[in-house]
Write a structure and sequence with these properties.
Helix content: under 10%
CATH topology: Lipocalin
Organism: Yoonia maricola
Number of helices: 1
Shape: elongated
Structural class: mainly beta
Distance between the termini: 45 Å
Keywords: Signal
CATH class: Mainly Beta
Oligomer: single chain
Strand content: over 45%
Protein name: Outer membrane protein
Number of domains: 1
Pfam families: Legionella_OMP
């Protein structure tokens, strides 16, 4: 039987700290997705800007971990069916990733990790309905960038997640849930252009692109899929 003493615990802590100290890059990215309703029945809902921020820690092996938060609120007093329409969306990711160059021009990144999602809506998922979901699960994704000019690249992103938690759908104003939901699938795709600028020991990347997110499991499976899309502006600093 292995026994752990205070000395061995300190050794483990120092070893793990030393490995973290070998990290050669820290990156912070801020994005401003301008999101509007895109699919199914969400008519007449205008675009609103949301906020998304992520922080990366990359080791010399080009592997690392990322913490990301997405905070989004959509609101329209005369939205779907002319009724007040609202969507509150909170997403937190903690993932590990690995980057490599497939070709001199093409770089790829694979990521896998955990996602927590909280979603509350009124008249968004379906007219006359309120939907709530809070859950956690796994997320997997692939990101790629293909250099087309010095410093400039076309990028593409794909993520899919399966989430498990508590959910319900009710008629607006009713307190009793009619359709309990315990799972939700989420798929996001995006593409655009990004450009790197060197600033001494730091590099800054500016980007503009399009992104769409599809959610399934919020309503009866016979109903259409719901989601949202929009333009995404981004800026990141690596040092």
């Amino acid at each position: 039987m292995t026994k752990f003493t205070s000395a061995s615990l300190i050794t483990c802590i120092l070893t793990s700290t030393a490995s973290v100290a070998t990290a050669d890059e820290i990156s912070i990215e801020i994005q401003a997705p301008s999101i509007s309703a895109a699919f199914a029945n969400q008519d007449g809902i205008g675009a609103e800007t949301s906020a998304r921020i992520s922080a990366d820690y990359t080791f010399e092996t080009n592997a690392g971990f990322r913490l990301g938060v997405w905070d989004m609120d959509l609101s329209d007093n005369e939205g779907q069916g002319g009724a007040p329409t609202e969507l509150s969306f909170r997403q937190v990711d903690f993932v590990g990733f690995s980057k490599f160059d497939a070709t001199p021009e093409l770089s790829l990144e694979f990521l896998i990790g955990l996602r927590a999602l909280g979603l509350n809506d009124q008249n968004f998922t379906s007219e006359g309905r309120e939907t709530n979901f809070d859950g956690v699960g796994g997320v997997f994704g692939v990101n790629g960038a293909h250099t087309i000019i010095p410093g400039g690249a076309i990028y593409g992103n794909f993520e899919t997640a399966v989430l498990f938690g508590d959910g319900d759908t009710t008629a607006v104003g009713e307190a009793t849930a009619e359709n309990a939901r315990s799972d939700l699938s989420q798929t996001t795709i995006g593409f655009g252009y990004e450009h790197d600028f060197a600033l001494g020991d730091r590099s800054t990347t500016l980007s503009i692109g399009y992104e769409a997110t599809v959610l399934s499991g919020l309503e009866d499976p016979t109903d259409v899929t719901v989601g949202f899309d929009g333009v995404v502006l981004g800026a990141s600093v690596t040092f």
